[in-house]
Amino acid sequence: MATNANSVEKVAAQRKERLRALRAASEISNGHGSSEEDAPGEEPKGETEPEQDLRFRNYLPRDKQFEPRKLAPPSLPMFDDPLSSAPLPTDRTEDPILSIAPKKANWDLRRDVAKKTGET
Fold this sequence. Notes:
Layout: H1 2-30, H2 82-85, H3 96-100, H4 107-117
């Protein structure tokens, strides 16, 4: 049992050494030397992120110094509406509203009475 615990500790120590070596190699390749004067949460003194260039697409700046950063509005393609260019068919003789509207409630009664009275 003691040999098993020793082997686990040995593997853990080897892993820690590999991680330290990898961390040192990555710092060297990135150009960040390990220095004690830099705190872990701070950025190195010589390196700062470049400022992002502001571009105004939907905002009209009021300040004159931001006027050159205003972008021109995008040009939209022309849209041809296929329905507006096609002429409407006018060959129908009956009113389309009559075909949609329901018949009156007594249409069958009028039909049957018209047969009996002889009216057409």
